[in-house]
Amino acid sequence: MQNLQLNDFINSRLHVTIDKDRHIVGTLVALDSQVNLLLNDVVEFSVIRPSTESDSDKHEAQQYTRKLGLVSIPRSSINVLRIVDEDLEALIKRRTYLMQSAV
Amino acid sequence: MNHKNHNLENTNDAICRDNKQNDTAGKKPLLSFNDRPTSFAQINNMNLIDVTAVFDNLCKDLPARAIIKSSEFDLFEGTHSLEVHNEKLDSSMINLTDKEVLFDCNIPYGESDEDKLKIVSGICDRLVRSIISWLSDYQILPSTVLSCRYIEHILVESESHDKIRKLESGHFLYDEVLSSCVISVAYFAKFVLELLKSGVIYEEEDLNFHTMGLNFFSYINNSNEIQESLNKSITLLRESSLAADFLIDLLNLLNNLVQIKTHITEYSTSTDHLESLKEIALTLSKKQPLNFPEIEGAFTMGIQKRMDNPFPPRDLVVPPSNNYINFVTLADDIGLILKVAQSESTIEIYQFSKFFNKLTQRHVLARAIFPLFLIRNDQTILGTMRIDEFVRSHIEEFSLFATNKEEDYVQYDSGIKIEEALQEGINVIFEMYQNFSQNTCRYAQGFNRQVKLWDSLQAHFEEAEYAITAEGLSDKIEETNNEFYPYAVWAYCMKLKIMCDLLLKGFDLELYKPNEICFLFWYIYYLQFHLQACLKDIDKFISAKIAHINNMPKRIKKVKAGPKKEKLKTEYQIIKETKLPQLKSNLAYVKYLLKETIIMQSLANIEIFQFILFKERKLVDMEYKLSDTMRFTNQQLMHNLRFKPFSSIAAPELFNYEGFLSNLTWIDEYQSLGGDQGIMNRINLELGTINVEVQNILDEISNCAESVDNEIYTGTRLVQEEAMEYYKGIQLAAKAIKISMSVSLAKMNKEKDPSELKNLYRLQLTHAETGSTYFPLMTLSPKTHWTKQDIQTSV
């Protein structure tokens, strides 16, 4: 993984956990030096629950999956940034292949 | 270089092979290897590798202002992105109350039946008012109709079962009545979505339809089920002991609303449901405001947080209590456009289309239905005429009828060229009729496009007619012995009219500044001059044809009695019956157009005269400028930009900037024009001409003359009111200019130092109330704020 550059991650699907109730998956189209991300084709997974605990106990939290389009995520909102292992392997493989070809 | 490219291709191939996925089509990412998760559970089951630290470390090494981006991505698009944790942009941050979150659509809210009735009536009332608020007030769906939790619930439930699912609360007021109301509203929305998809009206400009990822009954093909459901609810309410008149009215209104679709599916011309819709809407508007109890969560911003939403959060719209009245406008406007089916000639269709949306922008649904109702799926006009016949008919009812080129062209080699040009005419006519129902700004854009289309069509007709004339098929204007080209003159006249319409629409849209008046109206005068000359030729040609027919009896009289005479008599009778009425109608229509050119020229003159009076006092000049102090350095470039739509037009020739100036030197001859009094006299003269000609047209419109012997024919029988309003507006605008000019002159002449006028007043383009917005008044308004120059002077 150490050989990977930021450019390699462009166009890959990233999983961004915002908090325990909100998870965003999108295609990385741009980022800056502060790790503010711009994701396209975003799908959001969220849990909407009542605010009071008594209600939370009585009712099941409702899960929603929805499309949001183009979303910018400031670094301060990113809890964890992840990528599917197979995608990462493919990125590493591609990077290795390119480096070998260049040599 | 080649070697590297080769390797790169291999790399991609290898990746694709390895992953057995190669979805590079469209904007999908190159490395989208895994099926996308659809739930939290699936995400939890995926093998995800934490790369947070990798990103943090790599970004540390980047220069502060560096941006890494996909080559296919334009950063400008990034300005439209939704920012996480930004309250104004992040719909996930919408705060919902617990009642909104836990709202259950399958609970029959209300203690007693009466309570339930009030609650259901309140929900239906707001939902129905939300529809018209969405359609008439340019609101968006999620903050109006889709804010109703029941709509979301029923659409989601129905989609998962591929059939309509009603509420399941156990009470008929919810399960039948509220369900049928919600279902019919969603079905009506589906119809609006279909109109939007037909491409006649535009998303955002005319209407917003954010579906939020909901499926609007794509699996329902007709309204039978919807209407049955509504009727069942009405019956249940009537059979119950509840006082449900209000709710029954609402359901009946919806029943009428869903029937609007029949105008484009069955091309129904019946207006019964529209009349009923109006009647109910009026009754309901009189009953407002009604204070029904509200159930928290029934209308909520929740859908913006739960469903697909590429837009920032929008506050809920509480539709005004009196907006039932907007259903009347909707029904009236749809009723109006259906009248086009009563047209008896192509001229009537054309005039109808020209006037129905000209002064008042009609309701968006009426504008969307009109072209679909007129030009049908089977490529016919109103189901009676093929579109190629429609094009021919336009020309026949103008200049082509009874010419040698009307039918005989098919026998000549060059006839094919006429056929080709007629085919091109189909596209031009189609474009023109599509444009008639556009919103006011698109209308102007459409004119812009059409100028070029008509110019090209004219050129092709000319080429074809020159060729066929050379082959020996000729039509002569008797008086001048000049060749008459019936196809080309039609395209030419249409082009000139559209060029003027485009210029005048700019005044309606308030695009011009006072300084431009002179150039623009002089050019309009110039175009009208050419149009007039062309119309006079057509007038001569048709008049000669009519005279020829009328003289036939005299000629027959001279022939000796016998079979030849009888044959001539029979021939005359046939011509008299088949040709004469259409020729007279064409002539009367051309004479009406001639009157229009006279009116337009007089109006253009009046506009220029008022300009001269202000120019003499240095309150206006002919420079293109942004403001009094900000002028453009290159006048010619600005001028070329303003007249760019006409730059490629071959005829009539467009003068360059110097050409315009040299044609307008006379406007500086204030004294030789007679000074204030002389110019006002000229304005009066022009006004007299306008009054006479407009009155003539108004008389014909109000009489709806059917007799072919009338002097003029406007073809406005079906848009009588709209056409009269247009011409009265013109008359009023001309009078207003005269009055306004007298007032301005008195004001200006009071000033002892005329050089001070420009410091005291600025010129504005305004319109008289109810006067035509196509012909502005130049009015003086006191300078109320400090200009840069004023400040410098005072300092």
Written description of the protein model:
The complex is a heterodimer of chains A (103) and B (795). Chain A is built from 3 helices and 5 strands. Chain A is of the alpha+beta class. Chain A has one domain (11-83): SH3 type barrels (Roll). The radius of gyration of chain A is 17 Å and the shape is elongated. Chain B has 795 residues and is mainly α. Chain B has 3 domains: 2-80, no CATH class; 111-338, no CATH class; 341-777, no CATH class. Chain B is 58% helix and 4% strand. In chain B, the strands form 3 sheets. Chain B has a two-stranded antiparallel sheet. Chain B has a two-stranded antiparallel ribbon with strand order 6-7. In chain B, helix 23 packs antiparallel against helix 26 (675-703). Strand 2 (22-32) of chain A pairs antiparallel with strand 2 of chain B.
Query: Sheet with the most strands of chain A?
Result: 5 strands, antiparallel
In which range does the helix fraction of chain A lie?
Answer: 25-40%
- The average pLDDT value of chain A, as a whole number, equals 90
Largest inter-chain contact set: A-B, 74 and 68 residues
From the N-terminal CA to the C-terminal CA of chain B, the straight-line distance is 69 Å
Q: pLDDT below 50 for ≥5 consecutive residues: which ranges of chain B?
A: 1-34
Distance between the termini of chain A: 19 Å
Poorly predicted ranges of chain A (pLDDT <50, ≥5 residues)? none
Describe the main β-sheet of chain B briefly.
2 strands, antiparallel
Count of DSSP helices of chain A? Answer: 3
Question: SSE order of chain A in H/E notation?
Answer: HEEEHEEH
Secondary-structure class of chain B: mainly alpha
Question: What gyration radius of chain A follows from the Cα positions, in whole Å?
Answer: 17 Å
